[in-house]
TrEMBL record:
CDD domains: PBP1_ABC_rhamnose. This is Rhamnose ABC transporter substrate-binding protein. It comes from Pseudonocardia xinjiangensis. It comes from the Bacteria. It is found in: Cell envelope. Coiled coil: none annotated. PROSITE patterns: PROKAR_LIPOPROTEIN (PS51257).
Length: 365
């Protein structure tokens, strides 16, 4: 499992229960391999595999580092990219932000192709689909561009590292723990996710499904998983649909900042307010009004700016030869401190924070 040696300064202390949960778990996919061992990959060659890391290599100045989030019109993405810009500025690089307006599977491909033509040094991508971006990302790598997946992973064989916001297992467990707290562990629950192809949400949902099989969670029944596509209106309608279709619903769990905000907005002005719990992953600034009005009492997130920041530093370390993406390599990410690359090229930011009425006003993002 990969470990940080320094806690991110801007992520405040978790509620004790969540700290225990998240710290107690490991990475779900500890295969012990890195992209270099992806034998049988048919999606492209990766010329960088033979490189050797030089931890003392200086960070090159003037690196062209481009960020390609899932979509641009999502406050979460803006915060992430803002952190990336901070890192690139600190590193005296050349920052660029591009991206689609929707999070559909193939919407990022044309942007990757343009970034290759522009001879960027690094592409940071939150993949809308793990495989749809693969051929283009491997073309980029063949052209000498380092690829940092962040937030939502691309398939392992088409990126150099993945900056994960917290362990996949830890996020899934936190979602179930919050739902258990809010429902007393009893009743019908539903998931309102992002897009059906999203790597990150699908990985978290898989952990939720496993957690629900445990005896202590046996009283909760997952009756539906629906997709708002990280589109506010569609998410709003899906929330409405769930509540109409499942009259006994006790909680909607939305592991997306777009979905939870739309769900909370619908529930807050409906007769379900106070009767159906809303939880999941949201930004404090989007969720504050729904915490204050009693619609939402617990949700979680990490600091999205720190993901972008860490991705920027990881990209610069790759492009400067400090790291190659292999397990055990280390690099320093500015104010966040030192990180070690874990199995499968994964770099874990740190534990998420659980927000509630007591602590939400301490956060402004
Ligand atoms: C949305 C996006 C993003 C995810 C957050 C929690 O903003 O789907 O990828 O990490 O929610």
């Amino acid at each position: 499992m990969s470990l940080r040696s320094t806690r991110p300064g801007s992520v405040r202390r978790l509620a004790p229960v969540a700290v225990g949960l998240v710290l107690a778990v490991g990475i779900s996919a500890c295969g012990g391999t890195t992209r270099d061992s992806s034998a049988g990959d048919t999606s492209g060659s990766t010329g960088a595999a033979a490189a050797t890391a030089n931890p003392d290599a200086p960070i090159r100045e003037g690196l062209k580092i481009a960020f390609l989030p899932k979509q641009l019109n999502n406050p979460y993405s803006d915060i992430e990219a803002g952190g990336g810009q901070t890192a690139v500025t600190e590193l005296k690089g050349d920052y660029k932000l591009v991206g689609p307006n929707d999070a559909s599977a193939s919407s990022q491909v044309s942007y990757i192709n343009t970034l290759i033509q522009q001879q960027q040094d690094v592409i940071g991508i939150a993949a809308n689909d793990p495989n749809a971006v693969c051929p283009s990302l491997n073309q980029a790598r063949d052209a000498g561009i380092k690829v940092v997946a962040f937030d939502s992973d691309a398939a392992k064989q088409c990126r150099d590292v993945f900056v994960n916001q917290a362990t996949t297992q830890g996020i899934g467990e936190t979602l179930v723990k919050m739902t258990h707290d809010l429902t007393g562990g009893q009743g019908d629950i539903a998931i309102l996710s992002a897009t059906p192809n999203a790597t990150n949400q699908n990985a978290w949902i898989a952990v939720v499904q496993e957690e629900l099989k445990k005896p202590e969670n046996a009283g909760m029944k997952l009756v539906a998983t629906v997709y708002g596509n990280d589109d506010d209106q569609k998410s709003f309608q899906e929330a409405q649909g769930l509540l109409q279709t499942y009259p006994n619903l006790k909680a909607i769990v939305s592991p997306t900042t777009v979905g939870i905000a739309a769900t909370a907005r619908y529930v807050s002005s409906s007769s379900y307010k106070g009767k159906v719990a809303v939880t999941g992953l949201g930004t404090p600034n989007q969720m504050r009004e729904f915490v204050k009005d009693g619609t939402v009492s617990q949700f979680a997130l990490w600091n999205p700016a720190d993901i972008g920041y860490l991705a920027g530093y990881a990209g610069a370390a790759l492009a400067s030869g400090q790291i190659t993406g292999k397990q055990g390599e280390t690099f320093t990410a500015g104010k966040l401190g030192k990180y070690t690359i874990g199995a499968d090229g994964e770099i874990v930011l740190g534990p998420p924070t659980v927000f509630n009425a007591q602590n939400i006003d301490q956060f402004n993002f």
